[in-house]
Design goal:
The chain is mostly helical. It contains five helices and no strands. It has one domain. Helix 1 runs antiparallel to helix 2 and helix 2 packs across helix 3.
Length: 129
Amino acid sequence: MISHYRNTALKQLGLSILFLVLLFVLAGLQPYGIPKVVIAIGCVLLGTFSFYFYGVGSVTLAKAKGYDDTVVLAIIVVGFLCLAGLLYVIPLIILFGLKDRTKPKRYSRASEPEITRRNPPAKLPPLRE
């Protein structure tokens, strides 16, 4: 998994959840005298940003696993056609359901460089005095 994309995706998905929570908090403030127009506009804005960051975060998470954007699009289409509840678990499907296609870094365990291991230094005879 590419760590830069993973970290960005987790930030975007966190923002999505934050905006969704703020949407419900704003909707719950209606009995405290806040005008309905302000609540409606705020809920539409927060819902739009939440949906945007959810989609972008899912696409970025797929990029972190080494997949193209079309994988997320296919999952979304299947979610709309089959199960509406599937849309809420798209990041979990990507994170746990898709195989990681990125190549892990390989570190050599030898303490000396490869050239020295292949061609050891020549052993010279002792010097005459």
